[in-house]
Design a protein that fits this description.
This protein is of the alpha+beta class. It has 5 domains: about 60 residues, no CATH class; about 70 residues, Nucleic acid-binding proteins (OB fold (Dihydrolipoamide Acetyltransferase, E2P), Beta Barrel), CATH 2.40.50.140; about 80 residues, OB fold (Dihydrolipoamide Acetyltransferase, E2P); about 70 residues, OB fold (Dihydrolipoamide Acetyltransferase, E2P); about 110 residues, Nucleic acid-binding proteins (OB fold (Dihydrolipoamide Acetyltransferase, E2P), Beta Barrel). The chain is about 15% helix and about 40% strand. A 5-stranded mixed barrel has the order 4-5-6-8-7. A 5-stranded antiparallel β-sheet has the order 11-10-9-12-13. A 5-stranded mixed beta barrel has the order 14-15-16-18-17. The longest helix is centred in the N-terminal third of the chain and has 19 residues. About 20% of the residues are buried. The N terminus and C terminus are likely disordered.
C-alpha cells in the first residue's frame, strides 16, 4: 500500500483481453496510473452470477401472515393444492374459503389470493387460507369506507342474539335496532338479503366491525325531505301513501315527509275514527293546506281533493224536499242530522218533538226548511213531515218503489210553492 493514499476508484472490465482499465491513485499532488488486463473468462462469470441470483430467489423465505396470489394446481375432495410461486405449493382446505366462493366452481388453473396461515415446523408444509386473506383486505376497505363515510353492501348470513351477521369478506354485526327505521319483526326473513350499510364502530385490536343500515336510510330520508320542502306549496294536490292512523287523524307519506290529515279533513261526512275513511297502505291524493319548513310539519286535506257533496247532490238540496237523514248529534235545543254524506242540517227546537227519544245513528224523516248556499247552512224539520198531506208528498216520488222520504232523482214539481207551511 502506498503511504498517504487517500482514495481509490476502479471500474470493472467491460471488454475482452485487449480492453484496458485505468486505476488512478492520488498521492499528494502526484497521480499514478496503471493498466489492467480483463480476465479471459469474464462472460462465463456473469452467467454464473445470473444463475446464482435465480437460485437465491427460488429460496426466498416465506413467512406466516404473507398474502400471495397463487394458482390452483390440484383439486381434491376437501382441499386445493395451490402454487404460490418460488417452487412452493400449499394446502388450502375448503373450510378456509370465504362464503362467497363455492368450491364446486373452482378448477385447476384458477387464481386465488391466499394467506400463509401456518407453516409446519417438521416438514415445512404450507397451510393456506383464502378467507383470511380476504378478511385482511376487507378490513383495509372497511377502514377506508369508515374514513370516507361510504356505503357498503353486504349479505345477511346469520341471525344472532341482538341482530344479524353480514358477509363483508369478513364478518360484520348489524344490531336489530340498526336494520330499519321501524322495528324488524322476524330477523330470519333477512337471511340472504343485501343491506346497504355504514360503519358505526370499529375494534382495531379484534378486527370487529359494527354497521348500520338505519343510518343510511335516515340520511337518504333527510335528503328527500329537504328536496321536497323546496317544492311544496299551499293548494297543491299531491299523491301520498297512508302510513299510520291515530285517533285524531291519518299520517300520509308524501315521499320523504309525513303529513297529517285531521279527521275533519278526511271526509265531508262526519267520522269518529280515520279507519272509516282510509286504511294503511292506501294511495291517496291530498291537498296541501299549510306547512312549516322549519318544523317540517305539513297539514293535509283529503276531502278537498274529493268531489264536493254540495255540488254532487245539488239537485236534491232544495227547500221543502223531504228526505231520510241520520241523527249525528242530540241536544235539548237542536238536532244535527246528515241528509247526504258530507252535508249536515240543523233541526231547531220546535221543529221536533222534545218528548221523543233520539240517538246518534238513528234514521229520521225530515223536510228541508232553509238552505243558505254561501254559508252552507241548512235547517230542517221533523214536524213538517207530518204536516204535509200524503197525497202532496206522493208528487215528489217518481218511482213508486222508492221509499217515501229518500233522495229522488227528479226535480221538484212547480206545485211545491203551494204546499202548506
Amino acid at each position: 500500500m502506498v503511504p498517504g493514499l487517500s482514495t481509490v476508484t476502479a471500474t470493472r472490465p467491460t471488454a475482452t483481453d485487449t480492453t484496458t482499465n485505468k486505476i488512478q491513485t492520488k498521492v499528494g499532488t502526484f497521480t499514478i496510473s496503471t493498466t489492467e488486463i480483463a480476465p479471459a473468462h469474464h462472460e462465463e462469470e456473469d452467467q454464473l452470477a445470473f444463475e446464482q441470483r435465480l437460485y437465491e430467489e427460488s429460496l426466498k423465505v416465506l413467512d406466516e401472515g404473507q398474502v400471495l396470489t397463487g394458482v390452483i394446481v390440484q383439486k381434491d375432495k376437501d382441499e386445493l393444492l395451490v402454487d404460490i410461486g418460488g417452487k412452493s405449493e400449499g394446502s388450502l382446505p375448503f373450510r378456509e374459503l370465504s362464503l362467497a366462493i363455492d368450491p364446486k366452481e373452482l378448477k385447476v388453473g384458477d387464481t386465488l389470493e391466499v394467506m400463509i396461515h401456518r407453516i409446519d415446523d417438521n416438514d415445512g408444509t404450507l397451510f393456506l387460507s383464502e378467507r383470511r386473506a380476504r378478511a385482511l383486505k376487507t378490513w383495509e376497505k372497511v377502514i377506508e369506507s369508515h374514513d370516507h363515510d361510504e356505503v357498503i353492501e353486504a349479505t345477511v348470513t346469520q341471525v344472532v342474539k341482538g341482530g344479524v351477521l353480514v358477509d363483508l369478506g369478513m364478518r360484520g354485526f348489524v344490531p336489530a335496532s340498526q336494520i330499519r327505521r321501524q322495528p324488524v319483526g322476524n330477523l330470519d326473513e333477512l337471511v340472504g338479503r343485501k343491506l346497504r350499510l355504514k360503519v358505526i364502530d370499529l375494534d382495531h385490536k379484534r378486527h370487529r366491525v359494527v354497521l348500520s343500515q338505519r343510518l343510511v336510510l335516515e340520511e337518504e330520508l333527510n335528503a328527500k325531505k329537504q328536496e321536497l320542502l323546496g317544492t311544496l306549496e299551499v293548494g297543491q294536490i299531491r299523491e301520498g301513501v297512508v302510513v299510520r292512523l291515530a285517533e285524531f287523524g291519518a299520517f300520509v307519506d308524501l315521499g320523504g315527509i309525513d303529513g297529517l290529515i285531521h279527521n275533519s279533513e278526511l271526509s265531508y261526512a262526519r267520522i269518529k275514527h280515520p279507519s272509516e275513511a282510509v286504511k294503511i297502505g292506501d294511495v291517496v291524493n291530498v291537498e296541501i293546506m299549510k306547512f312549516d319548513p322549519d318544523a317540517k310539519k305539513v297539514s293535509l286535506s283529503l276531502k278537498h281533493a274529493l268531489p264536493d257533496p254540495w255540488d254532487e247532490h245539488a239537485h236534491n238540496l232544495y227547500e221543502t224536499n223531504a228526505m231520510t237523514a241520520q241523527v249525528v248529534k242530540v241536544t235539548p235545543n237542536y238536532l244535527l242530522v246528515e241528509i247526504v254524506p258530507g252535508v249536515l242540517a240543523m233541526i231547531p227546537k220546535g221543529e221536533f218533538d222534545p218528548g221523543a227519544q233520539f240517538s246518534p245513528g238513528q234514521e229520521v224523516e225530515v223536510t228541508l226548511l232553509t238552505i243558505n248556499q254561501s254559508t252552507r247552512r241548512i235547517t230542517a224539520s221533523i214536524q213538517h213531515v207530518a204536516d204535509i198531506p200524503p197525497e202532496e208528498i206522493e208528487k215528489y216520488v217518481v218511482d213508486e218503489d222508492v221509499p217515501l222520504g229518500t233522495i229522488a232523482d227528479s226535480e221538484p214539481p212547480s206545485a211545491v210553492e203551494a204546499l202548506p207551511e
